[in-house]
């Protein structure tokens, strides 16, 4: 059995999409990031960066003690390698996939995340126009990278649907909220519609969708506490020697 430490965000959904595509059993362990579950000592043992997703595989390849993996890119590689699916191993094809997994982790995820963050801030947070332009332009550039890549290929790593597609898809779903006009990127749009129509992708995207709260249902004090918890994190002290 695989435990998926999860909250329904784009990074979490990458993993549930792959697990649904693989059809292997898994158990969702909610990490309520608004409440601060990501800071518990127990969670930090498997995810020292205090971020979800993370997995614990209780039946790792070769047996022995459970293996835990944090960082969604590492989780995708681990699960695809274990299952022997969605990651071709011929060296050229293998590194096509690795490059796009790294691209997603280093570019698309972080920049799209920052764009969303600055676009969501209210006027009480001050003038965000520089940040919105900086990250908005970068996200536009990244949709262009996808579009150009998909101009002459069906999938990101070539003819085959792989973890490179699964890891990139969830971050494209909110294109409207990111200030993107999908009609500008027709090769991307073709891929987006094809990937989004896959039943396993739809199931993976829907996992635990009902567990989030409507922020409007929280008191102003609780909303302020959660904002501080998520947006003002600083280093945790190392344990005493
Ligand atoms: N690079 C990490 C990013 C994970 C990440 O940012 N997770 C967010 C939710 S999407 C999180 O756990 N946030 C908790 C926090 O900010 O305290 C990955 O891809 O796994």
From TrEMBL:
Start and end residues of each GST C-terminal domain: 90-218
Signal sequence region: none
InterPro entries from the UniProt entry: Glutathione-S-Trfase_C-like (IPR010987), Glutathione-S-Trfase_C_sf (IPR036282), Glutathione_S-Trfase (IPR040079), Glutathione_S-Trfase_N (IPR004045), GST_C (IPR004046), Thioredoxin-like_sf (IPR036249)
PROSITE patterns found in the cross-reference section: GST_CTER (PS50405), GST_NTER (PS50404)
CDD domains associated with the record: GST_C_Ure2p_like, GST_N_Ure2p_like
Ranges of residues in domain GST N-terminal: 1-87
Source superkingdom: Bacteria
Pfam families attached to this UniProt entry: GST_C, GST_N
SUPFAM superfamilies, sorted: GST C-terminal domain-like, Thioredoxin-like
Family: Belongs to the GST superfamily.
Protein's name in the database: Glutathione S-transferase N-terminal domain-containing protein
């Amino acid at each position: 059995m695989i435990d998926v430490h999860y909250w329904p965000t784009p990074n979490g959904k990458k993993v549930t999409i792959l697990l649904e595509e693989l059809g292997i059993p898994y158990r969702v362990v909610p990490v309520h990031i608004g409440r601060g579950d990501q800071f518990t000592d127990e969670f930090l043992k498997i995810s020292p960066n205090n971020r979800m997703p993370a997995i614990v595989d209780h039946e790792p390849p070769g047996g022995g003690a459970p293996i835990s993996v944090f960082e969604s890119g590492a989780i995708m590689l681990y699960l695809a390698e274990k299952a022997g699916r969605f990651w071709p191993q011929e060296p050229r094809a293998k590194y096509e996939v690795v490059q796009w997994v790294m691209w997603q982790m280093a570019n698309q995820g972080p920049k799209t995340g920052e764009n969303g963050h600055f676009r969501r801030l209210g006027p009480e947070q001050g003038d965000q126009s520089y940040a919105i332009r900086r990250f908005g332009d970068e996200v536009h550039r990244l949709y262009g990278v996808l579009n150009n890549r998909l101009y002459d290929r069906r999938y990101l790593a070539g003819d085959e649907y792989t973890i490179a597609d699964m890891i990139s898809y969830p971050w494209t779903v909110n294109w409207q909220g990111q200030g993107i006009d999908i009609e500008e990127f027709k090769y991307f749009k073709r891929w987006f519609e094809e990937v989004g129509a896959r039943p396993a992708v739809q199931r993976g995207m829907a996992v635990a969708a009902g567990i989030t709260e409507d922020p409007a249902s929280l008191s102003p004090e609780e909303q302020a506490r959660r904002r501080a918890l998520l947006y003002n994190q600083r280093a945790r002290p190392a344990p005493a020697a």
